[in-house]
Amino acid sequence: MTARVTRSRSRNIANLSHAPTQPTKSALASQNVAASNISALPDSLYATATGLDSKNQKLLLAKQNRLTDRNGQIPRFIRDRLTQPANDHSHALANAASSTLVFAQQEAGTAVCVSPSGLLLTCSHCVAESEDVLDLAKDQWLLFADGRVVKARCVGYDGRRDLALLQIVAAQTSRQLDPTTANTTEMSGFPAIALTETPPRRNTSLFCIGHPGSEDFEVDTPGVATGYDVLHISEGRYRGLAVGQDVQDNSEIGALKHDCWTYWGHSGAPLINDEGLLVGLHSSWDDSTGMRRGVAWEAVKAFIDEYARKRE
């Protein structure tokens, strides 16, 4: 089984209000935006503002340019659904895409915003390979699907569940697509999605919104470009939980099974149902079967519940 291949390969090249005790599906997503605690980042980001080395600074700007390309898959996916009737879940799916982020480092993974106050959920291995090397003071640079850059800090980490929470501490001005013109307009808060109230049923339709790697690691010659989008949406189904595996233990390989297409860099990608709600995160795959694996709803809910209780 491929347990930590995505993580180790990406690590080697990535040198870069009050919640209830038992949160409902919207407990995090309904928190007020703490704007006073989030600093503004300039529209034009230079290395002096990010502190990134020249390689990762160029990579951040390159990803930003590609994410803001109106002909990219994500902008088209959002526009198409915003122009459809709101009662067919199309707007919720557009919001889910808008709520997804990529790490600025090369192949370093994906995250999703679960609160308009800027709380981001991802896999723990996208932040640090283990708690021993976790640096809570380290700045994490990410980009929303619309291309705007945010700086975040880790506020929750669970290596066993393979989950981490980041809090945005600085951000560029938030924007949203105008479906009639494909231009951007100002919006308040951060786009966010909620966890479903119950775990998904087997064979539930899923969307996976993730960051496929730009380099093909499966060829002998290094540096071969894949040509994939910075963010890619794939469709598949929830295939249940691995038999005999503790659903709360994803330290070796994720307990959730799904068959959405993924590639290097998809770790932390949200798995979304057709109502635009979160059911889990992609984390790895079983290379003996090709089945994609992830962090299941049960582990995500337990992790978020524990975080909410700590904030009481």
Automatic annotation (TrEMBL):
This is Pro-apoptotic serine protease NMA111. It comes from Rachicladosporium monterosium. Belongs to the peptidase S1C family. InterPro entries: Peptidase_S1_PA, Peptidase_S1_PA_chymotrypsin, Peptidase_S1C. SUPFAM superfamilies: Trypsin-like serine proteases. Nuclear serine protease which mediates apoptosis.
